[in-house]
Amino acid sequence: SFTLAIVGRPNVGKSTLFNRLVGKKLALVDDQPGVTRDLREGEGRIADLRFTVIDSAGLEEATDDSLQGRMRRLTERAVEMADVCLFMIDARAGVLPADEVFADILRKKNANVILAANKGEGKAADATILEAYALGLGEPIRMSAEHGEGMGELMDVLRPIYDAHEEKAAADAPEVDVDVGEDDEDAPRIPTRAKPLQIAVVGRPNAGKSTLINKIIGEERLLTGPEAGITRDAISVQQDWGGVPMRIFDTAGMRRKAKVQEKLEKLSVSDGLRAVKFAEVVVVLLDVEIPFEQQDLRIADLAEREGRAVVVAVNKWDVEDEKQTKLKELRESFERLLPQLRGAPLVTVSAKTGKGLDRLQQAIMRAHEVWNRRISTAHLNRWLTGMLEQHPPPAPGGKRIKMRYMTQVKTRPPAFVVMTSHPDLMPESYKRYLINGLRVDFDMPGTPIRLYLRDQG
Ligand code: GDP
């Protein structure tokens, strides 16, 4: 089931939250002093969300020199078991060096993190909230596990992750031919955390999605044919591609159900939406004979809005005679029709012959790498100073916009926060100036970049 791990240094309030989520006060059983309890597990809930909660509270009893090492190991284990980690800091204490150790583990493990500043009631916590951005783990939720505050916010951030997980579990289920035996419940739960790179191949019917996937997986696991809609409901396959484990989502499955053309379009888009949500990198596959169709544009735009890395691949390149001219034309159309995807790679392929697939794979890997890119705060602030000098922000109505501090709060896709005075007065054009600057100066093609402004007086 969906698993949430609560991690953080001792005494931040992990157990209090655990008890609140699990809903009963589990007595802390410690018959032998000095024995470190292991990870605690319970069935947690917030509103209608039900999940497994893991608490790494056992650490609080550990007081000897090996604390650091044990903390690290236990946390790493919790992270490996979890779908999402709630990283708790103490808003009254501020961000301490020990917190950085945990932040570091979470980053290294590439964990899905919800940052929570506990004991957040009252004004005293304000400074910590700002400091917490600098951990580079996203927007902190202010909560009080003791008083039950912030549970709504926690639910809000948890829900999309939870939903995506449930949807994915449902989508994954049919293709696994598991023989459910009687004793299945006793079988050990093996966490499979060697996560494959998740790709969705999207595009209009007959663009060649199934042919492409067939070529990659090297066997006829999907059916292809000349008429639209012949692909059966094979929604995803996992396959090593050039030594890299990948899970490939196809959006073709649902097309079969659509009989009418207009319905077809609708279904393809909503189906595409589903695949796009699961994916890390979205490959928009175009047919060289009818590139950049309405449907292609919609799905590419969707991928950008969902914050996915995007690679555009032009298929059936084998039938193109005027390759040079065509390529130029394609690049122009791309720039004009999909300005929101500026810098995304455009690769020509032939799914049929397999030509260009190595370049496609490289483009996917690179887009994925950029999507995960993290830039140090020091580097960002030096850059920001330069940008401000080169082109100072406007002074609408005589009010000077002062930008004080910038930090990356998220990856996948990269997201940044700028602390600024009068964020409401900042024109869109200035935001675009900064975003484009980030893209060029830090070499981040093919990924959406988010920039948030926060009021800091
Ligand atoms: P899907 O609907 O996007 O899954 O498209 P299919 O994979 O079913 O392909 C539609 C048609 O295009 C089939 O007849 C394929 O043989 C053909 N096709 C796919 N890729 C290529 C290619 O690279 N070159 C050529 N010439 N034909 C292709």
From TrEMBL:
EngA-type G domain sequence ranges: 2-166, 197-372
One Pfam family named in its UniProt record: MMR_HSR1
Binding-site positions, GTP 2: 203-210, 250-254, 315-318
Keywords on record: GTP-binding, Hydrolase, Nucleotide-binding, Repeat, Ribosome biogenesis
Gene Ontology annotations of biological process type: ribosome biogenesis
Residues binding GTP 1, per UniProt: 8-15, 55-59, 118-121
CDD domains per UniProt: EngA1, EngA2
Xref: InterPro entries: G_ENGA (IPR031166), GTP-bd (IPR006073), GTPase_Der (IPR016484), KH_dom-like (IPR032859), KH_dom-like_a/b (IPR015946), P-loop_NTPase (IPR027417), Small_GTP-bd (IPR005225)
Domain of life: Bacteria
Subunit structure and binding partners: Associates with the 50S ribosomal subunit.
PANTHER family (alphabetical): GTPASE DER (PTHR43834:SF6)
Function: GTPase that plays an essential role in the late steps of ribosome biogenesis.
Family from the record: Belongs to the TRAFAC class TrmE-Era-EngA-EngB-Septin-like GTPase superfamily. EngA (Der) GTPase family.
Protein's name in the database: GTPase Der
Organism per entry: Yoonia algicola
Organism lineage string: Bacteria, Pseudomonadati, Pseudomonadota, Alphaproteobacteria, Rhodobacterales
